[in-house]
């Protein structure tokens, strides 16, 4: 997946929705310490920026160096390129010592991960007790009934070009393995539904779909999913290129902490 989002890195920041400030606040309230957070697959730092409001330092990592070139800068965020060639120990050493991380976040990305490997690293890094991992995503956008119907028809043309790993995102992370103890913000098989409101122009919508991996994959195969005809149909359903609408991205979250049974107890003679 290393180069999956490199080609659309320039439009990714503008196209994707920001996450509500309330999300970061409720996550911060769950962790007793606020020293260090790790934002994984940070892309251009959209989630890292919100986390940085509540934690002294945020390590924001991504396997895409192209995405990191467009990251939003902030004094307490340290961006880091972490290619897949890094070993688990090398990755951990770049983040912090075992048990040093208070919050781990993954926004719109965990469905791409090697989950057993990632979860093993998470369980070593999270501060115990009290460390929290939160993952979230979104898989739909509600505009108007007329536009939603047109968008659904167009979306069906993209289906052959999606990577199979997207399947857990499509069902709202209900099928996502998540071996952590619930902290009241969703659990394995039962994610928390969260809306993401946004003011969006038609141009903004188009930039969002242009950043989809399926659209890029299709283009590489010589298929233009956003033909002139397709765009004109979507624009008409939107109500015109100059119209700005209040839309809702349909989001979901799962959050947890390392299970008590998995904590390592050291006996002192």
UniProtKB/TrEMBL annotation:
Gene3D superfamilies reported in the protein's UniProt record: Vaccinia Virus protein VP39 (3.40.50.150)
Range of residues in the leader sequence: none
Pfam families named in the record: Methyltransf_11
Entry's transmembrane regions: none
Domain Methyltransferase type: 39-134
Protein name per its UniProtKB record: S-adenosyl-L-methionine-dependent methyltransferases superfamily protein
Any one biological process term the GO annotation gives: methylation
GO molecular function, one term: S-adenosylmethionine-dependent methyltransferase activity
Organism: Perilla frutescens var. hirtella
Keywords carried by this UniProt record: Methyltransferase, Transferase
InterPro entries membership: Methyltransf_11 (IPR013216), SAM-dependent_MTases_sf (IPR029063)
């Amino acid at each position: 997946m290393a180069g999956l989002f490199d080609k659309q890195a320039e439009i990714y920041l503008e196209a994707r929705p920001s996450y509500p400030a309330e999300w970061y606040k409720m996550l911060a309230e769950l962790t007793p310490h606020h020293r260090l957070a790790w934002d994984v697959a940070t892309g251009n730092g959209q989630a890292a920026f919100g986390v940085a409001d509540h934690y002294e330092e945020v390590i924001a990592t991504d396997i895409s160096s192209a995405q990191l070139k467009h990251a939003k800068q902030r004094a307490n965020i340290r961006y880091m390129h972490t290619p897949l060639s890094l070993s688990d120990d090398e990755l951990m050493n770049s983040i912090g010592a075992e048990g040093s991380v208070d919050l781990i976040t993954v926004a719109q990305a965990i469905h791409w991960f090697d989950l057993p490997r990632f979860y093993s690293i998470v369980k070593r890094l999270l501060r115990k007790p009290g460390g929290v991992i939160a993952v979230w995503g979104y898989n739909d956008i509600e505009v108007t009934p007329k536009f939603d119907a047109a968008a659904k028809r167009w979306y069906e043309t993209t289906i052959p070009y999606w990577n199979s790993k997207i399947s857990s995102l499509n069902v709202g992370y209900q099928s996502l393995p998540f071996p952590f103890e619930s902290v009241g913000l969703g659990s394995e098989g039962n994610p928390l539904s969260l809306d993401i409101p946004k003011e969006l122009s038609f141009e903004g919508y188009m930039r969002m779909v242009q950043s989809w991996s399926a659209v890029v994959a299709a283009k590489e195969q010589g298929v233009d999913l956003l033909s002139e005809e397709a765009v004109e149909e979507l624009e008409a359903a939107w109500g015109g290129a100059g119209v700005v609408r209040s839309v809702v991205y349909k989001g979901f979250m799962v959050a947890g902490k390392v299970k008590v049974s998995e904590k390592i107890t050291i006996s002192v003679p």
